[in-house]
């Protein structure tokens, strides 16, 4: 669990639980051309807190690693300095834990560390506060349950179960459910190695359910 920014006390939940990720965190941030302040803002941390993570004075929680890996366009495994395992082409249903970010609930539906990121997503009901995204890459969605409202530039499309959309994600876009109970969809996007490569899943730090 994260602590209040500025708290320098050790994190007992994380102490000794993770390898030293400090060198990787700093190297990946610099490789993406992000300042400490910019990266901290995207991750919802104070610059001082992120600085302590990069110097090894604090250990990041797993939700924090998920957020930072998304910002840096990489995987948690790379942040931890792990060698990539032999890729298994089969993705079993029970192997992926749901992760939540701002009401979006998603499960990995594809292999880790690949150029295409495949997810099964529960989309919350669309509101005016939903964020418009613009970033390099392509996205493809396919609606499984409920109805989805997809805004692409000035056009708004309502997708029913069985409908899909494939678009250039440099087009300003916003995705939300058109039904109050939310919607289920398959979501595929290209993971671009750039500071702008972020999933269109809320704006908060992901956490395990």
UniProtKB/TrEMBL annotation:
Please list where the region (Disordered) is annotated: 1-22
> What Pfam families is this protein classified in?
Cupin_2 (PF07883), HTH_31 (PF13560)
Say which species the protein is native to. Answer: Streptomyces bikiniensis
Q: What is this protein called?
A: Helix-turn-helix domain-containing protein
Does the record's keyword annotation contain Phosphoprotein?
A: no
Supply the alphabetized keyword list: DNA-binding
Q: Which residues form the HTH cro/C1-type domain?
A: 25-79
Q: Which InterPro entries match?
A: Cro/C1-type_HTH (IPR001387), Cupin_2 (IPR013096), Lambda_DNA-bd_dom_sf (IPR010982), RmlC-like_jellyroll (IPR014710), RmlC_Cupin_sf (IPR011051), TransReg_Diox_bact_type (IPR050807)
Superkingdom: Bacteria
